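Think of the structure tokens as a kind of shorthand, similar to the way a musician reads notation: each symbol stands for something richer, in this case the local conformation of the backbone. In the example below we present two proteins back to back. Begin with the first one, reading the sequence and then the tokens, and try to describe in your own words what changes along the chain.
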Amino acid sequence: GWCSGLFPVSDARLAREHGRDAARTMRRTLQAAVDEIGRVALAEKIDCAFAKGGSIVAARNAAQVTTARAEVAEAHALGLDHDDLRWMDGAEAGEVVDIAGMRGATFTPHCASLDPARLVRGLADAVERRGVSVFERTPALDVRPGGPGRRPVVRSAGGTVTADVVVVALEAWSESLAARRRRIVPVYSLMLATEPLDDAVWAEIGLANRETFADGRRLVIYGQRTADGRIAFGGRGAPYHFASTTRDRFDTDPRIHEGLRETLVELFPALRGVEITHRWGGPIGVPRDWWPSVGLDRSSGVAWAGGYVGDGVAASNLAGRTLADLILGRDTELVGLPWVGHRGPKWEREPLRWMGINAVLWATNLGDRTERRHGRPSRVASAADRLLGG
């Protein structure tokens, strides 16, 4: 439900590999994508509960304060300003949301909360009104690249489709196609939702503008106030499944969901005893170097987009517009962004992949516990970040 200007690659890394101007343009363009989604939702009358209230990330221990302040300094060194990302002290942050133990927070206005399922269905209706045919329940089994004198082909159970360009945008399900194997792995992120909360509870919690919220732990959590007055709250930490397996049954995990409930009550003690009415989840797509990418190989006629590491609502909008420019041969600012044409390394073969990803999840969790206890950034968690390339 977050529609954010976030990018999983740090400002410093973007600037180091592509220069400060390119890094700043990438950030600005992603931020603009948030407003573009709001504009399209309004123009197409898509009722997706879009509310651009911004995003607040609480710092709840000394290590998180250090990391948050460094993030703000890094963004400002790149050329972003106070209106893009700023540090709030505890009193100012508490005016936005009353998170237990909050010492301060970062805040960015470049984030909206929305209902992504309604957004997708509304977009499907919008393109169908323009004459596009959408074929659901038609699994793509294989993509055969084109070459001299032949076009790329998508093979399905009911036949084949030939086109000038085939776009592969399967995200966490990329492993199902041989051509994309080991490019993106599925890592599960699970969520829950409370019953609708009464006005007295909301007066205590805050989030009056439907700001999205998180805290500075490394094992990511995320939440939002929904249009119907619930808190939808999620986090990572579910195990990676051997051979990049995805199954419907992985969408729920009693142990992880109970941990999320406990974390939510830890953040907001007023929610103790509140009923949890929904539990669900799904896989996000993670490239080996955490670098989302979009591109077109004209020799084969195959284009691609994905690897958003969970921040794909605005990024996929930008990717779609970038693909349109690439395919139509337009020379625009979008086709020069630093994620265009990027090809990261492949993930390791199994069982190394299974061992490595789950070891990093364990190390990240350990790092959070260490930072809470000692107040210093965890060397173990930092090493895990470097191992994944994030």
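Once you have a description of the first chain, move to the second and do the same.
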Amino acid sequence: MKKKYYIFLLSIIILTIVFVTSYIYYGINTALSDAGQIEEIIVPGNEPEYHFSMICENLEDSLWLSVKNGVEKASEEFNVAVEFNGPNVVNGSDEQKYMNIAIASRLDGIITHVWDEKEAGELIDCAVEKCMPVVTIGTDAENSKRAAFVGVNAYDSGVQLGRMLLAAAGDQSNAAVLISKGQIDETVQKNLMILGIKDSVKDYPNIKITTIEYDSTDILNIEDTIRDLIQNPNGLDSIICTTSKDTTLVVQRLIDLNKMDYNIIGSGYSPQLLRYIDKRVVFGTVSADYEQMGYDAIKAMVQIKKIGRTSAYFKVNTMVITGENISEYIKSGEE
């Protein structure tokens, strides 16, 4: 009788284990089905010591392809495997799903772009509570339990944009700064960048800076903003863009309208933007060293795993690219 009882009890335990395992497996695969499969796993030449997940904003964006180059270099140097995940278009919901997958997979660490400070922050805290350290990249969730942030100083970028305006327009200009309402960390990052621009030209009373906001998720809204801007007879002579994608959209719209008599100052880094600078359509751009960003993110995570700590902030260098030095960048940007 006891033997039958033990057999029955063992059967219940086995069925419970099978059920729980199947449930977890189903959950992970459902999330993968919704978000798409892992885009790529970057592995070193030797057996990796650690396995990390990096969650990107947009795998098709040239900026994130540059980040990936840095990740590949760090993967070899530090002997780690990295899942390089993310949507093919900007989509916070997909980033959230990839974050859930990474947490469920119990990897050695997670590096993530922050699509929404509150949502991402809650998942970051969840990961840390499950002993998975998190490093944020590009955008930050400062109030979360993340171990480090790898990104650009928005104020410094603004200073560089302001200096480029002086180089393009001289000591007299009526400039519009285009700011996307949809940017992550909108209030803090936007204000820091604008402050940097204004501080860099504060000794030039004949330079006027106007800030114009628009919805970057709506192409028609961007086009309407540009049309209204150039139709307003206010002596506008310079346009400062604050993202790579929006710089390209602004230039394309101005070309369509045959209105190319502006000093266009861009942000970011892409093959198309470099070609515009080479053709002198765009005066120049201020871009982060995104390859360094990817490398430093892996470096930070390895330090956490090996010694239990790392710097809280890795400041990524910025590059100032104009027609004067475009030859140093255009070949690598077109590869």
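Compare your description with these statements about the second chain. Residues 23-38 have pLDDT under 50 and may be disordered.
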